[in-house]
Each structure stands twice: as C-alpha cells, then as structure tokens.
Amino acid sequence: GEAITVADLAQKLALKGGDVVKALFKMGVMATITQTIDHDTAVLVTEELGHTAVRADADDAESELLAHVEDVQGETSPRPPVVTIMGHVDHGKTSLLDYIRRTRIATGEAGGITQHIGAYHVDTPKGVISFLDTPGHAAFTSMRARGAKLTDIVVLVVAADDGVMPQTVEAIQHARSAKVPLIVAINKIDKSEADPSRIKNELLAHDIVAEDFGGDTQMVELSAKTGDGIDDLLDAISLQAEVLELKAVAEGRASGTVIESSLDKGRGPVATVLVQQGQLNKGDFLVCGVEYGRVRALFDETGSQVPSAGPSIPVQVLGLSGVPDAGDDFVVVDDERLAREVAQQREAKRRELRLVQAAGNRMEDIMAQM
Ligand code: GTP
Ligand code: MG
Predict the structure, then answer these.
(1) Are strands 314-320 and 219-221 parallel, antiparallel or unpaired?
(2) Which stretches make up the Tr-type G domain (predicted)?
(3) What region does 368 belong to: left with phi over 0, alpha with psi -120 to 50, or beta?
(4) Which of 85, 89, 95, 98 to mutate to test the pocket of ligand 1 (most atoms within 8 A of CB)?
(5) Is 215 annotated as a binding residue?
(6) 136 annotated ligand binder
(7) How far is the centre of ligand 2, averaged over its atoms, from the C-alpha of 90 (Å)?
(8) 105, 196, 258, 355: which is deepest, by most CB within 10 A?
(9) Where are the alpha helices (DSSP H) in the chain?
(10) What is the pLDDT of residue 108?
(11) Whose CA is nearest to atom 22 of ligand 1?
C-alpha cells in the first residue's frame, strides 16, 4: 500500500491535522502532521476516527466486493419510502406503529402471530410504505455516523396534550442533519386537553412551519387510539415520497443494511435487513459486516417465508455465520469464496484494530501515571 502524510489524510477526512495526530497517539503511533504514515496505519486511524477506508489496491477482496456493488447499475425504478417514527417519550410512537400494523398488515394464514421485527412494510391505497421501529435505534445512529442514509422520511410524533419536549427537538435536529424531510403527526387529539394549534406554534420556534401557517411542513392531526387521521398520515407520507422521487435498482444482486439482529436458540443468527438495492433471494451468498453465509430462509414481518425481497423491503435473514451488528451493510456476491474472504479480512482488520486500541489504552494509562 501507499504511504500518506498526516496532513494529507486529515484533509481527505475533512479533519484538523491535530485531531488525526491525537487519534494516532491514542493508537500508540507518534507522528507530527508533516510525517508520513504507512497504508495500514492510515486505514486503522481512519476507521478509528469513524470513517470507512476504501482501499485503492485492485487485488483486495474488499475492492472485488465494491466492484460487485458498482456492477448493479441497471435500470432504476420507483421504490417505496422508508419512514422512521421519532418523538418524545410517551407521545405515542409505538401506539401509532401498532395501529398502522394492526390495520394494514395482512397477516399470514398459518399462525398469524406477528413477531417483533424492527421494521415492516404496509400496503396503502397509494402504495407500499416501510416503517422502521424503535426510533433512534442503533442502526439509525450508526448509519448516521457513517453519513449513509437509511430513512427517507421522519414522522415526528408530538402529543397534542403535552407539546414540544426535549426529545422532540432532538428528533428535529436528527432529521435536519440527516437532510431527511419531516412530517409532524400531532397525536392524541382524542384527549380533551389536546391543543394542536399550540403544538404548531411551539414548532415555529424550531423553524418547523405548518402548511396552514404558510410553511412547507405537512402536519397531520391524529389519534393512535381511535385511528382518526391515520389515513391522512399515510396520504401525507405518500405525497412526500412522490416529491422525493425515490428510486432503486430493483433487479440484480442485493445490498442493504442490518436493522437489528439476534441469536435465536433454534434458528441461529437472525438479521433483519433492509434491502436498498437489487433483489435478495433465498439461496444467495452474502457478506454482512464481518459475517457471511448463504440465505437459508427469508421471513417477512408476519413470520411468513418469502422467496425474495426488493428495495425498501425489510426481511429477516437466516443462514449467516454469526450475528452482525445493527448498521452493518450487506452485499450479495456470486460465490461463497468471495463472501468468506471479505468477511475474514474484515474480521482480521477488526481484531487488529482492537489490539491497537488495547495498546493505545495501555499507553494512555502509562501517560496518566506520568
Ligand atoms: P416510548 O416508547 O416510551 O418513548 O413511548 P411511545 O412514544 O412509544 O408512546 P406509547 O405509544 O407507548 O404511548 C404512551 C401512552 O400514551 C400509552 O399509554 C398510550 O396508550 C397513550 N396513547 C398513545 N397514543 C394515544 C392517543 O392517540 N390517544 C390517547 N388518549 N392516548 C394515547
Ligand atoms: Mg414506544
């Protein structure tokens, strides 16, 4: 690999040279900003700083994988919007999701037990909408840290009997920094204390201006308890999605992101992934974070087996070598060899990084005692 000066690396990462020097120091590498560091150190410090390093070396398995992803550049077609529900504690996020899920998800014939799944899609008269559960969850945060986008629209739930609260403001900032459009769901309008216009006024202070106040933010008054206004919310989402003109390659090798994962006693590692490009099929080989495997089965949110899943559709994947992390990406590859190679390389890098970090920590301890 190639060497690079600390200053050049800092520039590539849009960071101050001093920050890179500090990160290097933590890793146990002494360097000034004019000094040159080798390729591997550059990769490690880049990752230490929360960025993803992409190698320029053509013979690396990781770049073979990258070529795989770039290969999938066929026709794009419209895809469903991916919506994340956010809002302050107790303002009704789960109730809203539950109501939509209850009324809109066609449960599978056998069993019909809806399992907990971090994401699901619903059919509306205006098309499919995918929802991500557990607002601000790990995948969302980790995706944001990487600058990638998992969600197209944020629905901000504000209880009409409570008002704009700290986590409401946090959600606004979240959506803003991720450049994701916001729709406000003014919830609990069935309550006698509900005062929707007060909510709109309070949101003004945060530059969220309702359409009937002359702004451009859609606000829907609803009740997750009675179901009043929920169809209006689904309409508002569809309208926003149309404006966004969301598209993806619907055919070919799939790629996407892990929403949540767990180790199931009977079924082994289970990952709920959101497909973002291509089509994920049963039998596909994939790399998923530092794990790999062949898709043994796919399940939708009702627990029914499905043969495949396309863009914006969440599915549970069985057949991975281990439990990936929320926020990890997955990529389908042609053969098991490449899947295994990439996964093993990543695992090796991660181990290396841990060792370096451990060394860095020890060094900090030593420094602290000096
Ligand atoms: P956290 O997950 O704790 O952040 O809360 P949440 O935002 O998911 O709120 P949740 O859906 O758990 O609702 C909180 C409480 O408000 C529950 O007791 C709900 O029954 C109640 N609630 C939610 N929506 C409505 C509504 O539209 N009307 C009324 N009257 N109560 C509601
Ligand atoms: Mg909840």
Answers:
(1) unpaired
(2) 78-247
(3) alpha
(4) 95
(5) no
(6) yes
(7) 7
(8) 258
(9) 6-12, 17-26, 39-48, 61-71, 93-104, 138-145, 166-177, 196-204, 230-244, 336-369
(10) 40
(11) 92
pLDDT of residue 133 exceeding 60:
yes
- Asked if residues 283 and 318 have their Cβ atoms less than 8 Å apart, the reply is no
Assess whether the C-beta atom of 89 lies below 6 angstroms from ligand 1.
yes
- Model pLDDT, residue 135: 46
Q: Can you tell me which residue has the tokens 């199931």?
A: 264
| Pairing verdict, β 247-249 and 76-78 | antiparallel
Digit-coded pLDDT (tens) for 279-320: 999 999 999 999 999 999 999 888 899 999 999 999 999 999
DSSP-assigned letter for residue 213: G
Contacts of 294 (CB under 8 A, 6+ apart): 283, 284, 285, 286, 319, 336
Residues 335-366: pLDDT tens digits? 888 889 888 888 888 888 877 777 777 767 77
Tokens of 92: 């009704």
Residue 254 has pLDDT above 90, yes or no: yes
- Rama region for 227: left / alpha / beta (φ>0; ψ in -120 to 50; rest): left
Q: How many CB atoms lie within 10 A of CB 297?
A: 16
Tell me which amino acid residue 99 is. Y
- How much is the ipTM here? 0.99
CA distance 52 to 167: 29
Ligand 1 atom nearest to 95, measured from its CA: 11
Contact yes or no for 247/268 (Cβ under 8 A): no
Handedness of CA 259, 265, 266, 269 (dihedral sign): positive
